[in-house]
Amino acid sequence: MMRITTLLAWGIGAVALLGATPVFAQVDSVRASTLPGRQVAEKAYNAGLASFTARNYPAALTSFNQALAAKPDFAAAYANRAATRLALKEYSAAVADYDQALKLEPSTYAAYFGRGQAREAAGQAPEAEADYSEALKANPAYAPAWYNRGVLRFEHGEYQAAHDDFSGAVKADSTYAYAYHDRASASLRLGNYAAAVPDYSRALALQPTLLPALLNRAAAERRTGQLTEALRDYDAYLTQKTDNALAFSNRGNARFDNKDYAGAVADFTRAITLDAKYAYAWNNRAAAELKLEQYAKANADATEAIRLNAKYAEAYLNRGHAREMLRQADEACQDWRQAAALGLAVGNSYAAAAGCAGQAAEQ
To answer: Residue 28: how many CB atoms within 10 A of its CB?
Structure first.
């Protein structure tokens, strides 16, 4: 009779950018030589790597500039100056340096990956995806490229493609906790809740501090009817994060499913305390209050949800039920028809069953 709305927490577990890293760990194309230019380039290049490792990016940039001044065809110096500029958020300059590195060394997968990172940071998602794909052509076992391309595809709603990319990442690196987490999130988006649970578990086994995996596993467990497990995970998460309105709301959903309506009200109340504009929590508390036969409270909460979101069909449905029990028949009929007009067809069914006069709402 009452309608509770679910909002899951199945977002991506980590930011797409993994952070700039040197493309080459040691001097590659420069060798010790009696030629002064090469000696200068080698010394400056190695100093740049040391500064980069120490996260002294301005000093690293100066050293790579010196290396390139001494040896203008030094591909590794271009690539690592690009990585330095990426760390400094100089994205256009980083792309230009990666371009130059790839002209000199066209098969360097890490340079394609780095250019993809720079382009992604600059908001050039299609170009970034193309670069990650080039990196994978050059090195199909490069897990970060699988992962970053998967993140881009997830963010664009390509959940099956994202799932496949995260699978590529864990195949390349079986210890990649974020890839397990985000493959589980893709499974959630695809409606495959049972597959999500073990992937979230694997992510937590690899990285126990990955709290989003705990919260998202609870959402998946709830969807598969594992309410005891879901409540356990919500409890564990909320022990560590006491300021997350979404987590309280979702635990409230699980308690509602478990017929613990008083517990659900308490959780929705906590969510509202943390975020007074959280329309879902207002509506869901109304649904729990209907179960507890607290009709006046349910009416007030559904009304607040509607004030916050005038197109909230479930809130109109719940307010209709509350008003019916408060003997406000005309108002209940109006709410059910509004719910139907907003796409919730069951509103017409309730209006017809209650004998509401007039035509059913068109959809």
So the answer is: 16
Specify whether the CB–CB gap between 7 and 222 falls below 8 A.
no
CA dist 17 and 177 (Å) reads: 15
Domains of the chain: which residue ranges? 242-363
pLDDT tens, residue by residue, 210-268: 999 999 999 999 999 999 999 999 999 999 999 999 999 999 999 999 999 999 999 99
What b/e readout covers 200-224, taking b as 16+ CB neighbours within 10 angstroms?
Answer: bbbbbebbeebbbbbbbbbbbbbbe
User: By C-alpha distance, which of 359, 355, 313, 357 is closest to 335?
Assistant: 313
| pTM recorded for the entire structure | 0.83
pLDDT tens column, 27-70: 333 333 334 678 889 899 999 999 999 999 999 999 999 999 99
Tell the burial category of 264 from Cβ atoms under 10 Å away from its Cβ (0-12, 13-18, 19+): buried
What distance in Å separates the CA atoms of residue 131 and residue 244, rounded to the nearest whole number? 36
- 129-136: list long-range contacts, CB under 8 Å, 24+ apart: 129/153, 134/109, 135/109, 135/110, 136/109, 136/168
Domain 242-363 sits in CATH at 1.25.40.10
Quote the distance between the C-alpha of residue 19 and its chain's center.
18
